[in-house]
Amino acid sequence: MNVPPPVAERRPITRSHHGDDFVDDYEWMRDKEDPATLAYLEAENAHTDAATAHLEPLRQQIFDEIKARTLETDLSVPVRRGAWWYYARTVEGQQYAIRCRCPIDNADDWNPPVLEGGAEVPGEEVLLDSNIEAEGHEFFSLGAFSINDDESLLAWSVDTQGDERYTIRVKDLRTGEVLPDEIPATSGGATWAAGGTHLFYTTVDEAWRPHRVWRHELGSTGEDVLVLEEPDERYFIGVGRTQSERFLVIGLSSKVTSEVRVLEADDPEGEFRVVLPRRDGVEYSLEHAVIGGEDHFLVLHNDGALNFELATVRVDDPSERTVIIPGSESTRLEDVDVFAQQIVVSYRRDALSRIGIMPLGAEGLGPLTEIDFGEELFTSGVGANAEWDQPLIRVGVGSFITPASIYDYVVETGELILRKQAPVLGGYDPEDYEQHRTWAVADDGVRVPVSVVCRKDTPRDGTAPALIYGYGAYEASMDPGFSVMRLSLLDRGFVFAIAHVRGGGELGRHWYDDGKMLHKRNTFTDFVASARHLVAEGWTSADRLIAEGGSAGGLLMGAVANLAPDAFAGIVASVPFVDALTTILDPRLPLTVIEWDEWGNPLEDPDVYAYMKSYSPYENVGAHPYPAILAVTSLHDTRVMYVEPAKWVARLRATATGDAPILLKTEMHAGHGGVSGRYASWKERAWELAWIIDRATSAG
């Protein structure tokens, strides 16, 4: 059935800043309570359903492929904590994981039990079944899952709306009783103090910014205690504990500045103290370490070190620091995990994430040893390590062609023990695929890394369809990891590429700085250069190339659609930040003020205003042909509101020339992360992949 695209009503308002007037015809859609807004979104969904109805057989085929490649009844690798092994199991036909534990054999038991899906586990206790929690709700997200020190209490939190406001509950694991304590409208996390008598959590303000830390006394019916409130709207606040469990930690951070406060975990009603006072432009985080029998904080900071350095300070006098790993132009230090016998450092070099281990003995720290994972492209990270004093370090690694693999690294010998590789059913053979790193050259001569994967039999004559993905913001790195869903593209002859554009963190802090604020256009031109590079190298052709990005990567999609519409056959923009200037001009909107350190403040600075207006996708929609566009959003998204892609699509329809389809799909019961539940997410991705395949193989 043919359902024509809806024509959005024009209700023009004029936005005036710095002597510039912009007429916005569609800002009225921001009112979610206006029946016309919901009617418009529903009409767009009806049009999208009709326009893509012919893809239903392909969608079902892709969903079946994803399902057939996935071991639906499975268990995670158990993690030891105290007297128990903790793990999650999935069951065929159920949307969500079930969290369980089973007892360790003895104190020297560091080999996790090998558990088989569907088999009975001796001594197993089911701690939380998310399928039961999700009953009666169209959306479900588990936030906190926090066990107290003696492993007798569980605090967990759930969001059933998609708005990222969670309700915390507590369960007595000895009896199975859910206690009367219930804390609504939190931002998700829950941290136990030592002794299990108090919980710490955060709440958000009207702009969805975590700004308050609270203390809840278990069993208390009185008001919870406000521990700390951060009045500066640029700062987020969070609470946790050090790996040693010795200290409670409150972290306060803007995009460019941070401050940490600590309190002994066995003194929950005490006063948190500042470790290093905030200084504008200085970021730091810390962990507790015992070095030479004395308490220290390991501080990862960028004070005089662009790519960060690692130093120690005494807990009782943090004013003087001793450098452990100095800053480097080639290596970006990203994180540190501290244990009784070793320090684990996560860092990035040559656009790849890496892990190094430093032994910690009575005399102090030994040399850093980098773990060699033996692949040209890979992504690695420190896994779940719940014990302070353990002889093994859990790490994870994967690549475009190697499924996610969980290892235990033996610190004493350097041996890597493979505990599990994510199973891929259906005869997957990594030898059938190849991955490469290639380098595009941007307009200003800067080399941009591009990671590429395809089947070995994919032609290099420009005839292969391709999907190029990009993000380029917040120093987030898009690493080359494995995806079962992506196989449905690769096995149809697709090339998949990630453009590691400026604004991300792949090549260090300077790479991020060169793609933010008044350098943001580098992100967009890098992506276009990467797309044209793939064509020039014969990986694909412009009429077979689809671009995809989400959130801030959706801004990238909107910008390149205006900048180089001829470079792509189609564009997928998920929860896209395409009305960026309108959002960043309004400090009343969620997360706007904290974003000024990323984009600039156009409200006060006319240069920032002019620069943002020059690239913001919504303002720059032009009267020229566009590639096919699919915009996907969620009604309850609190980070990038549905109104941004809704306005963008309406303006594209009213302005663009040509006959390429422009579609908007709104999830009416989801948030920023899209639908919940693994089968629902598979169906959603199958829907998108079918559109991508159709556009890439029918265009031109």
Total of helices? 12
User: What structural category characterises the helix and strand content?
Assistant: alpha+beta
CATH superfamily of the domain at 13-68 and 427-698: Alpha/Beta hydrolase fold, catalytic domain
- Widest β-sheet, arrangement of strands: 33-34-36-35-37-38-39-40
- The total beta strand count reads 40
Shape: globular
List the keywords.
Rossmann fold; 12 helices; 35% strand; alpha+beta; 5-stranded antiparallel sheet; 700 residues
Task: Note down, in words, how this protein is organized.
- Helix 2 crosses helix 12 and helix 6 (521-536) packs across helix 7.
- Strand 39 (628-634), helix 11 and strand 40 (662-667) form a beta-alpha-beta unit.
- 46% of the residues are buried.
- The protein is globular, with a radius of gyration of 26 Å.
- It is of the alpha+beta class and 700 residues long.
- The chain has an eight-stranded mixed sheet, with helices on both faces. Strands 3, 4, 5, 6 and 7 form a five-stranded antiparallel sheet that branches.
- Among the domains are: 13-68 and 427-698, 3-Layer(aba) Sandwich (Rossmann fold), CATH 3.40.50; 283-422, Methylamine Dehydrogenase, Chain H (7 Propeller), CATH 2.130.10.120.
